[in-house]
Amino acid sequence: MLLEFSVENFLSFKTKTTLNLAATxxxxxxxxxxxxxxxxxxxxxxxxxxxxxxGKSNLIRAMSTMRRLVLQSFDQxxxxxxxxxPFLLNTETxxxxxxxxxxxxxxKVRYRYGFKVSNKQVYAEWLFEAPKNTEKPxxxxxxxxxxxxxxxxxxxxxxxxxxxxxxxxxxxxxFNGKTARKIMQWFNNFITISGLTHEGYKGVTFxxxxxxxxxxxxxxxYKKLDMGFDDISINKKPFDPKELPKDMPDGFFKQLITDxxxxxxxxxxxxxxxxxxxxxxIGHVEFDMRNQESSxxxxxxxxxxxxxxxxxxxxxxxxxxxxxxxHPLLTLAVTRLFNSTQFNPNNAQLIFATxxxxxxxxxxxxxxxxxxxxxDQFGASNMYSLVEYxxxxxxxxxxxxxxxxxxxGRYGAIPFIGNLSDIITEWHEK
Length: 430
Known about the structure:
The protein has helices at 56-72, 168-174, 178-188, 202-210, 215-225, 250-259, 289-292, 295-313, 328-337, 359-362, 402-407, 420-429; strands spanning 2-8, 17-20, 34-36, 41-43, 45-50, 98-106, 109-117, 122-130, 136-142, 145-148, 190-194, 231-238, 264-275, 281-288, 316-320, 349-353, 370-375, 381-385, 390-391, 394-395. It is α+β, with helices and mostly antiparallel strands. A hairpin with a 2-residue loop joins strand 9 (136-142) and strand 10.
């Protein structure tokens, strides 16, 4: 379970910015939105608002970048770059390393892991463990070396095997370190997806629909959403070069045949009822999912795999632009899965960016779950939660109309449009 994520000097985040999923003392939706453990009360997720180009996607990209560096670090060579972009709008930060850190819980133990990296090397790395309240280091890495503590024997003698552009944690995992393996598994379940380019996730959905244990959950979810079809049919067949367009360039055509040799083509059909003139069911008709169903239906199908995969395993799912192409009620349905004891028995967490202000009213989110991101005059993104926001020195009351207040600009993090009538007048005068 995720407790905190922090980033500094990465893309539009100049100063240290933290997303905190530790529940505050407010008494809102405590029965549904909180994960209670022996030591912590954690939130089941967070919802992030902000204007276009405010930094919402950059925050999610920071999470994705940290995950990528952890899971792929060992596979790189000593000459590979790390694809790190610092805050470039300030002379102090443009050549400084970027900072990433997570605090999370595995088997009732709290860990704090992070690193500082540039595009070419790791400047610092650290791992702390807190079985109880006191935090103790397992290893500390600085520019000039790595110090491995006695309580982290799995890291001994691996210091010299760690490249300048590789993470020590991943090296320890490659040599079967027990703690490192658990942390790597946690990062494997720390998943980021895009709500805009979601085609690549349907493979996860295929696998879950073919699994007898997970398939009923997805099909039941589709039926509850009432998307107009009764069932789904998945057909696999070998790739046939004859199905490729005939007007393709010869070189490209031959390369595709080579690349797709042995691959399977998967066709997804939705099953619809067919009626006669008296509106009696006389059979069923198959629709091609991609070509005959709406973009919203395709999106729900594509992302439902990752959603239920995380719900099944109890991980963390981060979605950028969750509401894109979705009716507000469909967005609401996805978010409510994570606040459901029926669908979320393993305490999965959902963090997502959205422009759907309906969720501020109907989503039943606590004030400490609602975050806003906006840029200052120097181009740096700043993030704050609704529970932190103060108006005339006082916190926002829970009985306020959060959606109305946000639209009116009371909490910031909205685009400045100006006077639309002036814009229209100027346009007509040209």
